[in-house]
Design goal:
Helix content: 25-40%
Number of helices: 9
Order of helices and strands: EHHHHHHEHEEEEHEEEH
Bound molecules: 2'-O-acetyl adenosine-5-diphosphoribose
Strand order of the largest sheet: 3-2-1-7-8-9
Shape: globular
Strand content: 15-25%
Structural class: alpha/beta
CATH class of the largest domain: Alpha Beta
Largest sheet: 6 strands, parallel
Distance between the termini: 17 Å
CATH superfamily of the largest domain: TPP-binding domain
Length: 228
Amino acid sequence: MSRKRIVILTGAGMSAESGISTFRDNDGLWKKHRFEDLATPHAWAMNPELVMEFYNARRKQLFEVKPNAGHFVLVKLEEKYDVQIITQNVDDLHERSGSSNVLHLHGELKKVRSTVDESLVYELDRWELKMGDKCEKGSQLRPHIVWFGEAVPMIVPAAEIAATADIFIVIGTSMVVYPAAGLIGYAPHDIPKYYIDPKASHVGGISNLKVIQKKAGEGVPELVEELL
Ligand code: OAD
């Protein structure tokens, strides 16, 4: 018998207990900074040094934090299920905790890419990207992040994965950024769905959704125990 497939959509709240700021909570990154100055192609064109400095600081932090109990317990689901994680997070904490299948919708902090050929993506082994760091075609490297106003190339495989779910779990996301927030709509109508987030509320038009208003560190281990 083939294993049931669990598809898990995660957001910034998944990594909050590792010490990484979310975006829209009171102490969130987009409460402290204007995203227009840091996370758009226009911002990069106007002030690449500032954009680079912002992502360098976040990349530096990534070398200082660790996966939390929520990340680790998701790995246990692989004992019984085919687990596919779709994350909006640009950190690598799912990978570092041991999850096998992780799709990054919004890019990866530890990667950089060419500004003339987006297929040229490189792993950065240090935290600092500098002006003058170039790709093999001689153009400046930029953070490998999907900025506001840019296409989300991974949404197509993500929607295909969502459509094959037997169970769908959402963890730690405000569900306001599209197209990511729309992925739950691709999951089959009748399957069980769970939404773990202290501020979770019902998502319009989604059937069979159990809302769990808890932090990831508490809600995820409880749900994993139930599913195992
Ligand atoms: P948000 O900051 O919009 O939402 C974070 C969610 O995490 C909120 O719903 C919080 O209630 C919840 N949360 C906070 N602490 C939590 C905890 N300990 N456990 C569980 N949940 C917790 O972040 P995202 O929804 O991830 O894109 O934002 C989506 C995208 O917007 C991001 O990927 C980012 C941002 O702009 C890019 O940077 C490209």
